Amino acid sequence: MRMLTVGGAMIDTIAIIDSDRIERMTMFNAESSFLLLEEGGKTEAKEVSTHCGGGAVNAAVAMSRLGVDTAALVKLGRDARAETLLARLMEEGVSCRWALRDGRAPTGCSVLISSHDRNAAIFTFRGANTLLESADLHDDAFAVDAVYVSNLTNESAECFPEIVRKARAYGAIIAVNPGLRQLSAYGSAFLGCLENIDILSINRREAGALVPLLGRTAEEKGAVLALAEGGEPPLSAVKGLSGGGFEMSLPGFCRAVTALGPKYVVLTDGARGAFVATREALSFCPAAQCDVVGTAGAGDAFAATFAAFIALGRREEDALRAATWNAASVVGNVDTQTGLLPLEAIERALAGEARLPAVRRWPLCATRQTICQEG
To answer: Which of 64, 88, 282, 375 has a 20 to 30 Å separation from 341 between CA atoms?
Structure first.
């Protein structure tokens, strides 16, 4: 199995701040919290550390640890940050053949401020990550079994349709994990590519960015869950999705997106768990219990693990549970890669089953009724 990851490469500087040294404000009428930094003052940090990150790099490391022959197509500057990232990739057994250097901008970097519930606030400088262009997309890079595309921004996002075309031309499985900015700025172009995408992985907020583009589709109307098999769905499924003044039920959203092409729609919902939809059913796996040290990288770990397991021919349920377990391991560490598990560790967890959450599954019904009861 050969895989190519495309997208971001970053150097992350992470500051851990004790909760009693920084204030947090939570909005009562919205799902938003804010860390408050004192202007002109110093805040003592518990720890400050530097790590390699970025969507394509995180995914490449995750897949390499799962035993997949992986290469990364990323854009780097001509600086020390680039050297650090290249050394990291080679250390993890990831091919750097398609890692490109560009002197027009420095290598991307981020500063993460983590406190309270460890859901970090992130300041991002994308740098060379924005400079991917058509000339960088060498045909030979896409002669693989699967292509995983992480978040692309600015000029790089304009390459997304061509990346998908090249991957499809070689018959590769295509998995994508776009970010909020890509979906907001290039939503129509993104939807136009869905017919060629096999696996779409997004979080709840990113799904909301697609809702305005899907809100009037016929497929959304009346799509509900058949409750006979899975019992009552979790609150996060009942709540539905909203964005741009439009609202959609979660089953309706999944039906609308899968109707456009993807075989699997993966929707992560943080500590509440994750959903996987096909045209036939919606599956749900609660998040695995763990001590949260840092949430950065959990989404990358989940999406990359699910894609790798599907590409390796594993069952959807195994892929969902393996992704849940790997993401839980990542949040047990401050950075995005230390917790990424080798295949053997995940296989042991799948075989043991005792500590892994059970997957629940509901058939999707095309009906205008509120509930579709089978049997």
So the answer is: 282
| pLDDT reported for residue 320 | 97
Q: How many CB atoms lie within 10 A of CB 363?
A: 16
Contact 137, 162 (CB under 8 A): yes
Strand partners, 314: none
Q: Write out the H or E segment, with its range, that includes residue 283.
A: strand 281-285
Q: Hunting for tokens 């550390």 — which residue is that?
A: 49
List of residues 6+ apart from 250 with CB closer than 8 A: 236, 237, 238, 239, 240, 241, 267, 275, 282
For the chain, what are the domain ranges?
2-18+45-366
Q: What is the mean pLDDT of each run of 10 residues along the chain (375 residues)?
A: 97 91 78 81 90 98 98 98 98 98 97 82 94 96 98 93 97 96 91 96 94 66 51 71 85 91 96 94 91 90 98 96 96 94 94 80 66 39
Tokens standing for 130? 């924005």
* The two three-digit tokens of residue 361, written as one number: 């599954």
Q: Are 151 and 124 in contact (CB under 8 A)?
A: no
Contact in structure between 85 and 15 (CB atoms under 8 Å):
no
How far is it, in rounded angstroms, from Cα 167 to Cα 175? 10
| Residue-by-residue DSSP string for 188-239 | HHHHHHGGG-SEEEEEHHHHHHHHHHHTT-GGGTTEEEBHHHH-SPPHHHHH
254: its two tokens: 């999944």
Taking CA atoms, 73 is separated from 20, 118, 148, 245, in Å, by 42, 30, 10, 37
CATH class, 2-18+45-366 region:
alpha beta
Q: What global pTM score does this model have?
A: 0.91
- Residue 191 has what pLDDT? 92
**pLDDT of 216:** 54
Cα distance between residue 311 and residue 309, in whole Å: 5
